[in-house]
Amino acid sequence: MEKSVTPLPSHADNMSIALVSSSFSPLVLLDDDLTIIAASSSFCDAFGVERAGVAGRKFSDIGNGEWNVPQLNSLLKATIAGNASIDVYEMDLVRSGKDTLRLLINAHTLDYFEAEHIRVVLAITDVTSQRLAEKIKDDLIREKQLLLHEIQHRVANSLQIIASVLLQTARKVQSSETRDHLRDAHNRVMSIAMLQKHLATTSVENVALASYFRDLCMSIGASMIGDPQRLSIATTVDNSIVDPDTSVSLGLIVTELVINALKHAFPGRTQTGTILVDYKTVGAGWALTVTDDGVGMPRDEQDRKPGLGTGIVEALAAQLQANVVVTDQGPGTKVTIARI
């Protein structure tokens, strides 16, 4: 049975024309051959189209031909045929002697049920200023990224120079105590350099501790362990990710504890051992432990007097709202920094 169609109700067309013509937004009402039935005053004013005589003209013919865009015409025809609908189509309106505009086009057919003719409402939004603002913003972000990269490069070079000067000075001084202090300073600078390098290659919002602790311990071991067959540093870290500020504090804590273990846990040049750095998330908190299998804590209370490294660890732990617990493993020592 052949499907019947009914003529388009005149009151429906009149209502559509009235709504489009009075709209404060740029709207155009088209028939099924892309002839303009009505256009809002806001459309004519925004795009320099003469209001008089706009109705009855082909949409592609208005203005000076700038609306004759093949891809847009194809999409409109596909919309009329029911094969597509234009939710968002972005295009440049190139006008002779005027600035090019960036437009968002939205087009949908009006539902007149079984009416014979199809009507299409075209909504046009000028987003030129928004796109310009986005471009300026993107350019500024790109410029700042380049500047940040240059600063990071210079900081890395400066840290390497400082570390080299400290190490060379340590080799020249006669006092063993001064030499030890200079080497400690060198190792601290190297740990900061490693942290800076790691942060420069990761997201500014997230730092993966597993790779960071591994690289940090490798750097400390390379500068302080003469025989890797005798002493080693291992890490067991879960998939925890922290913000940069927290990673800085944790990295400095690990540096101080590992350096302290290398200096005091294995006093003999023939003694073998391992330092283990462990980190894991515990509920809403976390626990960091540095354990060695060396000689353990000194028996003499005088020898247990806290040094600079201990003060640094306690201060950093306080910043993280964590507690520090030192345990004599017999043999070995275990230091736990936990926020539970």
From TrEMBL:
Transferase recorded as keyword: yes
EC number: 2.7.13.3
Enzyme class label: transferase
Domain Histidine kinase/HSP90-like ATPase, chain residue ranges per copy: 245-340
GO MF annotations in UniProt: ATP binding; protein histidine kinase activity
Keywords recorded for this protein, A-Z: ATP-binding, Kinase, Nucleotide-binding, Phosphoprotein, Transferase
Catalytic function, reaction form: ATP + protein L-histidine = ADP + protein N-phospho-L-histidine
SUPFAM superfamilies from the UniProt entry: ATPase domain of HSP90 chaperone/DNA topoisomerase II/histidine kinase, PYP-like sensor domain (PAS domain)
InterPro entries xrefs: HATPase_C_sf, HATPase_dom, PAS-like_dom_sf, PAS_4, Sig_transdc_His_kin_sub2_dim/P
Identification of the protein by name: histidine kinase
Taxon lineage: Bacteria, Pseudomonadati, Pseudomonadota, Alphaproteobacteria, Sphingomonadales
